[in-house]
Design brief:
The complex is a heterotrimer of chains A (515), B (333) and C (326). By secondary structure, chain B is mainly alpha-helical. Chain B has 15 helices and 2 strands. Chain C is 73% helix and 1% strand. Chain C starts with a helix and ends with a helix. The chains are: A alpha/beta (515), B mainly alpha (333), C mainly alpha (326).
């Protein structure tokens, strides 16, 4: 931790990596247009931008996955071109990604050293040396597991530690962290921050990509802003305010203002009694009223999504009763749930939401085919009518309704998924992290729309990990912890402090909940 | 951005249907079929004979019956490699029934039932136990034909009733065979099922994104199970036709036919990874394969050499457009 | 923390052992060392091919052309032997391996450069390779008396109590054991199949790895092609017809996941041995050899169902009580 490389003893204002005039075009899209990005030793540079600003393309160019169409990359002043990811790795650039990009079937040591394992005289992998080195790296970062452990036995946070150990093992000069905290709990995030400090002290240049502004201001030394594939500006974090940074990012100033709502709620629509699952959640009881927005808050892994999927019929609870408008309903499959007026907008839009490959109108009508068809035979005119109605209602931006939904931006895909569900005329809509990964401009639109839905009498369940959103949007909030309901908060009790306390289990007198 | 744009209008379609059709895989394939037809009619004076052409249809009618159901199965992201073995088992069951004095109606019922049960068996392993269909059907491919071998060994069943010959040897009118009638009817049924019904839409949705389809309230397992049943039943029908045409059953009947069926489906433009494909495409592919086999046959080219051509066709039809795109992309840059 | 893979192999080894014991209770001669050596020798081609197939399946591909490759290479070296009887065996071996590798490379290049699904590619090349045998041989057989004694004798030469064919299988197993566990190529095969997306980020070229997997599989098919023709002293269009399915069956029974990334050398070998023992035991216990196909089909179904059950990933355990109850 105290050893510094020769490079980092030079003044910290000479960049290790300097990208200049980088351009990358894909068929029909200019992903990057003459952008510049500098990374300095011993400093964290935050790359800030909305979705589609060109952040991930930049990462892929830096790691050698894409070859830029134009511009130069200099490392310590020498112009270089990466023809493959191997060359980028050899130049000391390594990345830790959003999804944990590692290999379940290999051991921790093998994951750390894949691609650059120590060899014996005969060119074979030297397992003993590899395990020794891996064990040392794991000790350095305080990892609580052995180098021999198969990766599949580790949880997501520990897999992150493996990814970080891997970054350290290649003697990287540049570490790219792409949304590293997205899947981590509060405690794990703090541990990650500590690791970032360690990396900084070793003189490594860190590129940090995040949507969370508190995180950026906590950890970054510098910032670079992209918008729509173009460079907007850069500088030191100390010299800029959060508001100005947001303004640079979206090109206008956006205050996080939530729509004003009447909070007039109607009669009971949904009542859940005693939902239990052998391993995921237990003793879930609550009611939901007409026109209400019910927030579900909790740390990652508190069991919120697991419960919602049980409510939607994807997994089966061991016991529990679901009443809709007072009648007991048995929900064994999503088809049952939709039939009973419960719909679910999942967190993972790409995999569980939109059907990429099908046109927009077919996505919208998919759960409503019973209405737009006769005796099981399709009626295209009816389908287009329905699709037109809901795409207008959601202000969908697309070239045409028979365009593949995969060609839409993330925000517009989300609109298609919501349109699909609204077209079924549901009673209850479950939105799982509805604004995750969405840029600030679209976020406000989603909030506006949620308020509108509630005002029209739809009951909304909103699962969210963002405290301002939970407080700003919800009539009531249920806090979950370790698979159980920790608290139900409303009115004056609903503050950031109470949410965090209940979610982390600080207010409970019986201790020992620290996972 | 002004606030006046309250309701944004998104057009239904950008391209007319005609334009879309012209650029389609089916159009390209139809061109190939016509070219083969023309070349053949120049190459051999016997080609343009109504009776010869009628005989030629036997090259593809039985395979195509299965290919239609297989197309739906592959679009949904699954595959059934056991179809030829289902034919063997169904044919063996019919042969066994004949030894016990069964008449034509009973034979038809037995053939269809065995097909249905085999399809249900595959469907159970894939949809209830959640196993990959390629492995399951490689297993049942051995199992179904294996049962035929256990029953028959080196023997053959013969002595099918005279009326049973109608399916594989009968004519409806002039040169039009019973099998051609089956082919046309089955093609129409599957065309409507895939392109004009809610069920067909569900098949496409599942093939493109099974999880997304499940989350959209589609009963994915049920749809897939039905598709395995359909493939089994179609194999049963093909077994009836083939047995009727050959007049005998050996356990080696229809060996390797699964590959020709899959080739026909892929040649017809169905994505082997699921999600896209059409019945008209498979119909044209059936004709292409039938015409090639027939034309080579007239020129006395042995069957195994024809299979080289079919293999090249299978790879070529996928490889050439991709090569073309690569060359075009390189030229641009 | 028990590692799962050895357990799976142990169960399969146990099943083979139990099978042998059952046969031994009634036909003690079957488990005599000399007979077991025969069984092993008979299974040697399947073992070699299963190892090649394992590498391909681990990278999320499948090679259905191995049997056709085997037959084409076999025919080619047999015809070379007829034309040039004096050609030494090492040269024949080199030719066989090279020819096989070239055919594997054709599969690999189509998968790598044109991104055509492997099942389509190898279905196509399977029929093409078979057709080419007919073209080069004109449909004729190459019989024992046309081949040189050295050519046919090599595979049957007994060294230290085992025929060369068996020794080659053993050598292949050893080489693969080292390759899969101790070389970067072996590890990258697991990486490509386990998580192709991540493999790209770790600097592994997925397509290229798949290409080399096909080359390895093809080279082994070529090697086996010569050994097969030498052992049975005959070459014709249809040798080893349908054998590709037996090879895939050996892999599936051996616990190699068709979805890629999961499997082991030991599993592939045991899967092949299981099929070999069954095949050789049937005539001994007086069951018609016609049962073999149905038995191997059932074995595939049982194996894949079993592996899927035990390999199912457990959900995230959230409840504390459930965690302690585990």
């Amino acid at each position: 931790m105290t050893t510094r490389t020769a490079a980092s003893t030079s003044p910290n204002d000479t960049p290790i990596v300097s990208m200049d005039m980088i351009t990358k075009t894909f068929p029909g899209v200019k992903a990057l247009d003459q952008v510049k990005l500098d990374l300095y030793p011993g400093q964290v540079t935050a790359l800030v931008g909305e979705n589609g600003a060109g952040k991930s393309t930049t990462v892929k160019i830096l790691t050698g996955i894409y070859v830029p169409d134009g511009g130069t990359i200099r490392i310590n002043g020498d112009a270089i071109a990466f023809a493959s990811p191997n060359e980028a790795a050899a130049a000391g650039i390594t990345a830790i990604h959003q999804e944990t990009v590692l290999f379940d079937e290999l051991s921790v040591a093998e994951n750390i050293y894949i691609g650059h394992a120590p060899r014996t005289r005969f060119g074979l992998i030297d397992k003993a040396a590899m395990h020794r080195a891996a064990t040392k790296l794991l000790d350095d970062i305080g990892a609580p597991f052995s180098a021999h452990t198969p990766l599949r036995d580790l949880g997501i946070a520990n897999k992150h530690l493996v990814a970080i150990a891997r970054a350290l093992s290649v003697d990287a000069r540049v570490v790219i962290m792409d949304e590293p905290t997205a899947a981590l709990s509060h405690k794990e995030i703090e541990e990650l921050y500590a690791l970032v400090e360690t990396l900084k002290s070793q003189g490594k240049a860190i590129l940090f990509i995040s949507h969370k502004f508190d995180e950026i201001f906590r950890i970054a030394d510098r910032y670079t802003v992209f918008r729509d594939g173009a460079f907007v500006g850069d500088g030191k974090i100390a010299d800029i305010s959060e508001g100005d940074l947001v303004k640079m990012m979206v090109g206008r100033s956006v205050d996080q203002i939530f729509p004003t709502r009447s909070h007039d709620v109607g009669e009971e629509v949904l009542k859940i009694v005693g939902y239990d699952h052998p391993t995921e959640f237990a003793d879930i009881n609550f009611t939901l009223n007409r026109g209400e927005i019910l927030g579900f808050y909790g740390l990652v892994g508190a069991g919120r999504s697991e419960f919602m999927q049980a409510l939607f019929g994807i997994t089966k609870p061991a016991k529990g009763v679901c009443r809709i408008n007072g009648d007991i309903k048995v929900i064994r499959s999503p088809a049952d749930a939709v039939g009973n007026g419960i719909v679910y907008v999942p967190e993972d839009r790409g995999k569980q939401g939109a059907i990429i490959g099908l046109p927009i109108f077919q996505n919208i009508t998919l759960p409503s085919l019973g209405k737009t068809s006769r005796n099981g035979f399709l009626k295209l005119a009816e389908e287009f009518k329905l699709a037109r109605e809901y795409s207008q209602r959601l202000d969908l931006r697309a070239a045409s309704l028979d365009q593949d939904v995969g060609n839409l931006s993330g925000g517009n895909q989300q609109k298609v998924v919501i349109a699909k569900w609204l077209a079924t005329l549901p009673q209850v809509i479950i939105l799982d992290e509805p604004t995750k990964g969405i840029d600030i401009g679209s976020k406000a639109a989603v909030h506006e729309f949620m308020a509108e839905l509630a005002a029209q009498g739809l009951s909304v369940i909103m699962v969210s990990s963002e405290i301002p959103e939970v407080i700003g949007m919800s009539d009531r909030v249920i806090v979950m912890r370790d698979g159980r309901i920790a608290a139900e908060l409303a009115g004056d009790d609903l503050t950031p402090e109470t949410l965090v306390r209940h979610a982390a289990g600080i207010s409970t007198p019986t201790k020992g909940a620290a996972a | 951005m002004t606030d006046t744009v309250q309701t944004r209008h998104v057009p239904d379609r950008l391209q007319g249907r005609a334009a879309r059709l012209l650029k389609s895989w089916e159009a390209l394939l139809l061109g190939v079929a016509i070219a083969i037809f023309v070349i053949n009619s120049f190459a051999s004076p016997y080609f343009l004979s109504a009776w010869n052409l009628s005989d030629a249809t036997f090259n593809f009618t039985e395979k195509a019956m299965i290919a239609f159901a297989m197309a739906l199965l592959i679009i949904s992201g699954e595959i059934d490699l056991s179809v030829a073995s289902i034919i063997a088992l169904a044919s063996t069951a019919m042969g066994l029934a004949v030894q016990h004095g069964a008449g034509t109606p009973e034979l038809v019922v037995i053939g269809l039932t065995v097909g249905l049960l085999c399809g249900a068996f595959n469907g159970f392993f894939v949809t209830v136990l959640g196993l990959p269909s390629i492995v399951v059907t490689i297993g049942t491919m051995s199992l179904f034909r294996g049962i035929s071998y256990i029953i028959l060994g080196d023997d053959a069943f013969r002595g099918y009733p005279a009326s049973f010959a109608w399916f594989g040897q009968g004519y409806i009118y002039w040169v039009f065979t019973v099998e051609m009638l089956f082919f046309v009817v089955i093609a129409l049924v599957y065309g409507v099922l895939l392109h004009k019904t809610n069920f067909g839409r569900a098949v496409y949705a599942i093939g493109n994104n099974p999880t997304g389809a499940l989350f959209s309230g589609i009963r994915v397992a049920r749809v897939k199970f039905i598709l395995f049943l359909l493939t089994g039943v179609m194999s049963g029908i093909a077994a009836i036709c083939l047995t009727s045409r050959l007049g005998s059953t050996r356990p080696s009947i229809a060996t390797g036919m699964e590959l020709e069926v899959v080739t026909m489906v892929v040649l017809g433009g169905v994505n082997i990874l699921g999600g896209s494909g059409t019945i008209p495409g498979v119909v044209i592919a059936a004709f292409v394969m039938g015409l090639v086999t027939f034309g080579f046959g007239l020129l006395n080219v042995p069957g195994i050499v024809m299979s080289i051509f079919i293999g090249l066709l299978l790879i070529g039809v996928i490889a050439l457009p991709r090569l073309w795109a690569m060359v075009a992309a390189r030229r641009k840059s | 923390m028990t590692r799962f893979i050895p357990l799976r192999e142990a169960i399969l080894a146990g099943a083979i052992f139990a099978l042998l014991m059952m046969i031994a209770t009634r036909f003690a001669g079957f488990v005599a060392p000399s007979n077991l050596a025969n069984v092993f020798n008979d299974t040697a081609p399947l073992i070699i091919l299963a190892l090649g197939q394992m590498v391909v399946i681990l990278t999320r591909c499948i090679d259905l052309s191995v049997a056709a490759n085997l037959a084409l290479t076999g025919m080619a070296v047999a015809m070379i032997n007829v034309a040039m009887p004096g050609l030494p065996i090492p040269v024949i071996l080199a030719i066989a391996i090279t020819l096989g590798a070239i055919m594997g490379a054709i599969n690999g290049i189509l998968v790598w450069k044109l991104a055509i699904p492997p099942i389509v590619v190898t279905l196509g090349t399977m029929t093409i390779f078979r057709g080419i045998i007919f073209l080069i041989s004109d449909g004729k057989w190459v019989n024992a008396h046309e081949m040189s004694p050295a050519f046919t004798g090599f595979a049957r030469t007994v060294l230290l109590g085992l025929p060369v064919l068996s020794w080659i299988a053993i050598l292949t197993v050893v080489i693969f054991g080292i390759m899969m566990a101790r070389t970067p190529f072996g590890r990258s095969i697991f990486a490509v199949g386990g998580n192709p997306h991540a493999a790209v980020y770790t600097g592994i070229n997925v397509g290229k790895t798949q290409f080399w997997a096909f080359v390895v599989s093809g080279a082994l098919a070529g090697l086996t092609g010569y050994l097969w023709v030498a052992r049975y002293a005959v070459a014709y269009v249809d040798i080893a017809g349908g054998f590709e399915l037996e090879v895939v069956a050996a892999c599936v029974i051996g616990g190699i996941s068709i979805a890629g990334g999961i499997g082991s050398v030991g599993g592939a070998v045991l899967g092949a041995l299981f099929l070999g023992v069954v095949k050789n035991a049937l005539p001994v216990v007086n069951i018609s050899p016609f049962w073999q196909l149905a038995i191997s089909g059932s074995a595939i179904l049982i194996a894949v169902a079993f592996n899927a059950r035990s390999g199912r990933t457990k959900g995230r355990i959230i409840l504390k009580s459930a965690e302690t109850a585990q």
